[in-house]
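Bumping with the actual sequence this time:
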Amino acid sequence: MICGYVLDNCDGDIARAKNLRSKFGHYFDSVTDWLVDSAFFLCLGIGASAHRDQSVWLWLGVITAVGATVSYFLELRHDLAAARGEKADPVNAGTLPGNLSEALVYIFRELTRADFCFIVLALAYYDVAWVLLPLGAVGAQAYWLTSLFVSWRRFHV
């Protein structure tokens, strides 16, 4: 997991430093991040369900993977809208947010993206990685709902 984290961050940094960015690279990175995140929570749910012999853990993994999928497609929709020249959503555009709701979504996203592999490693060391399932199930839904709410606010008349 840490190796994947390092490689995932290095490829983008190298591409930006050498001015080798491409649309394909951007979308490929986005798709692989979505697949890895969804598969991680789904597999964590399968493992916790088998270990504890309770199906609730499997369902929490599925709910989290579905939330990650919805978030991915909302972000994809945003990227395509930005490519068409539509007004950018500050939360998904990587700019500093202007109000409290945008700031909370921005902070949550950046913290979970940057340090997630280390959080998983620490929790796995203490054999409590299962706590990520209820947190992920709630957090994934809260993330895409908040992101959608912030996007809708742009259209408020």
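The tokens above came from a reply further down the thread. The chain has six helices and no strands.
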